[in-house]
Design brief:
- There is one protein chain.
- This protein is α/β, with parallel strands linked by helices.
- It has twelve helices and twelve strands.
- The strands form three sheets. The chain has a six-stranded parallel β-sheet, sandwiched between helices.
- Helix 2 runs parallel beside helix 5 and helix 7 runs parallel beside helix 8.
């Protein structure tokens, strides 16, 4: 810059930079010169959740494959703690990636999303980005109607005391699935039958133990994901009860966990492969200058032995 402005002007600019704390936006500079050809897979979860929940690997594999068709690499960035979020923000705003795929966002991570958005870095969320619905595009499964359909199926199977193990209330899935449960039961909702989990297997066991202790008359439980449903089954069996004869169990996701359980879990299938393709499609269009878009995909009921058995199964 010193070759193109006077010494007095250069001194004035440097003083202003020092006074305001301004720093060059490497991302904007890279857009003007070159690209990193890399997209961040920003995961707002603890490290153990990455390895416990197989859904993340499915999404990451699908996104990487879709991005490879555009000659773009994918890099995983963990942002489950405040320290990780700070490092992730510095890395992303440092111009090391061209765009961001936001996965499993929590409302507690709103600040990093806001910073990425304000920096002009293209970002698309997997799931509704709480607090940024009008700014950040997203692809989401229909959590609300999926939960309603599952509870309706439990009712149609003859279950009358249907409990739920809800997901975290700072996530779109946790909110949407609990809302669907409430909506389908209507005036029959019993607050004592609502227990809280965090999507982990341990929380499913813990919540189920509390339900069996406090509300022993229940005959079904709808867990907000398959991991918690599997935890519930293990706790029910540890209590000397049978699934589904004594207590039916339903999950959500149709992850590999559902078929690895004994009995296999009746669940709502999220179309993870299509979700990963759609988030990449929206992200690429955003990079190309198009406006953010939102896509909601339907779920599908998958009936297995945790609700009905053998010849009682219904085609789904």
């Amino acid at each position: 810059m010193g070759h193109w402005v006077s010494p007095d002007a250069l001194t004035a600019v440097n003083k202003a930079i020092k006074k305001t704390g301004y720093r060059i936006n490497p991302h904007a500079r890279s857009l003007a010169t070159s690209k990193a050809n890399t997209v961040a897979f920003l995961l707002g979860e603890a490290h153990e959740r990455l390895f416990e929940d197989p859904n993340f690997s499915v999404l990451m594999r699908g996104a990487a494959q879709a991005l490879s068709e555009h000659d773009i690499s994918l890099v995983l960035i963990m942002a489950g703690t405040p320290a990780e979020q700070r490092r992730a923000k510095d890395f992303i705003l440092g111009g090391h990636v061209d765009a961001v795929l936001l996965v499993s966002s929590h409302s507690r991570g709103k600040t990093i999303v806001e910073d990425i958005y304000k920096a002009g870095i293209p970002i698309i969320a997997c799931g509704i980005p709480l607090g940024h619905e009008g700014q950040v595009g997203y692809v989401a499964a229909d959590d609300f109607n999926g939960a309603r359909e599952m509870v309706a199926y439990l009712k149609s199977s003859g279950r009358t005391r249907i409990a739920t193990i809800a997901g975290p209330m700072d996530t779109p899935g946790g909110i949407g699935r609990l809302k669907g449960y409430r909506e389908e039961l209507g005036s029959d909702v019993d607050e004592a039958l609502i227990s809280q989990g965090d999507y982990s297997l341990k929380s499913g066991k813990r919540a189920m133990k509390a339900l069996l202790k406090d509300t022993p008359a229940i005959d079904a439980v709808f867990a907000a994901n398959d991991l918690m449903a599997r935890g519930a089954i293990e706790e029910i069996q540890a209590a000397g009860m049978r699934v589904p004869e004594d207590l039916a169990v339903a999950g959500f996701d149709d992850s590999p966990v559902a078929v690895a359980s004994d009995p296999e879990i009746t669940t709502m299938r999220q179309p993870f492969e299509r979700i990963s393709q759609e988030i990449v499609r929206l992200l690429v269009s955003l990079i190309q200058g198009q406006q953010p878009a939102a896509v909601t995909l339907p779920t599908a009921l998958v009936v297995r032995d945790s609700i009905v058995q053998g010849t009682q199964r219904l085609l789904a």
